[in-house]
Amino acid sequence: MFVSPMKLEDGIPASAAPRHVLVVDDSRAQRHMVSMQLRRWGYQVSECETAIAALDLCRSGDFDIIISDWMMPGMTGLEFCRAFRALPREAYGYFVLLTSKSETTEIADGLEAGADDFLTKPVASSELRARLRAGERMLAMHAELLAKNKVIVSTLVELQKIYDSLDRDLIEARKLQQTLIRDRVRDYGWARVSLLLRNSGRVGGDLVGSFRVDEDRVVVYSIDVSGHGVASAMMTARLAGFLTGSSPEQNLAFQTGAEGEHVFLPPAAVVDRFNRLMLEEIQAEQYFTMVFAVIDRRTGRLDLVQAGHPHPLLLRSDGRVQRLGQGGLPVGLIAEARFDPISVQISPGDRLVLCSDGFTECPLPSGADFGEDGLTESLQASAHLSGADLLEAMVWDLTRAAGTDSFPDDVSGIVLDLLA
């Protein structure tokens, strides 16, 4: 009757199949004695009289436990152990050296070569059995670890597939988001608007744009939705639908007049409508900052509202930079929020610059932020450039100051040039 090598009386559970043990010894009598005991305990046993032959067997088959004499002609047990450890194996092999050596340096050499345990010749049955129990425990732990590693690898493979799928979706979402500002430069004849949108991730929560009200008025807006990623990007896409110039009936900047005409609302009323929309209809756990501005060439007046967004900057034709606004509250936080209008006169050659906090709050190696002072210096240094080139120069200045072009937040901006 077959007796498992992992009997309950040994203190460890029985295994499903016998361990395969390779006994290597140039002494036929020693091999026979050890092998007989192993077979009595239920092990599958193979024998070799030389280490070279044993190594060939190990190359073609798997052995759970190796019991090898140290001193053998040709290749020693120590050399065999070292060569065995160099073989490509998935499962672990427990290696026991039979030796008459007891010096500390000799034992250290064996451990360095990869031996797990040692037995002194002549081999005592009880000591051999104790060594086998230790080997069984190590092999069981290694098998368990190997099985868990396979589960981890399999899980990582599945996660990688999911990640790759999500990444492909995000790449497509990024392309769709970029279509919101397909025209990076929009020429309205008497005014030119240049747009910049650079997400810190695949998708982002910044939105910039413009539209024509009529022949004499143009709107520009800059929005920064709280948070990052897909939720913010979806919100920007939804907000963009409420600021389309091609469909005034869907644009929150217009309301229907008494005779069915589309009446343009002042900036404060527009931002207030967005605030009510966020709190009463959308009701998302998000808010956004915003600058909404309209320029009228007939009056030479710029009217805008700053709702928690970085200060709008007016780059005058003489090189001066004027900071507008008092900050204001973000949109979608407080139902009773007031959005105070700002009105200034502008002249041909002046430029309105709107930037997200991806510029002003970008951290620098010194621990400080790029800040509005850094933004102002960048504007003045590149004031001679066209609107699109000015925005790119600002990004370059930010990259140089931050020491990287991988910014922690979305970077967006608008330059409106009053041409006539």
Overview of this structure, please?
- This protein is of the alpha+beta class and 420 residues long.
- It folds into 2 domains: 141 residues, Rossmann fold (3-Layer(aba) Sandwich); 236 residues, 4-Layer Sandwich (Phosphatase 2c, domain 1).
- It contains 10 helices and 18 strands.
- The chain has a 6-stranded antiparallel beta sheet.
- Helix 4 links the parallel strand 4 and strand 5.
- Helix 2 runs parallel beside helix 3 and helix 9 packs across helix 10.
- It is rod-shaped.
- The termini are far apart.
- The N terminus is likely disordered.
What is the class of the largest domain in the CATH system?
Answer: Alpha Beta
Report the end-to-end length measured between terminal Cα atoms. 105 Å
Q: Report mean pLDDT, rounded to a whole number.
A: 88
How many strand elements? Answer: 18
Query: What CATH architecture label of the largest domain applies?
Result: 4-Layer Sandwich
Class by helix and strand content?
A: alpha+beta
**In terms of per-residue confidence, which ranges show pLDDT below 50 for 5 or more consecutive residues?**
1-15
Shape: rod-shaped
- Helix amount: 25-40%
Strand line-up across the major sheet: 6-7-18-17-14-15
User: Mind telling me the C-alpha Rg?
Assistant: 39 Å
CATH superfamily of the largest domain: PPM-type phosphatase domain
Helix tally equals 10
Domain tally = 2
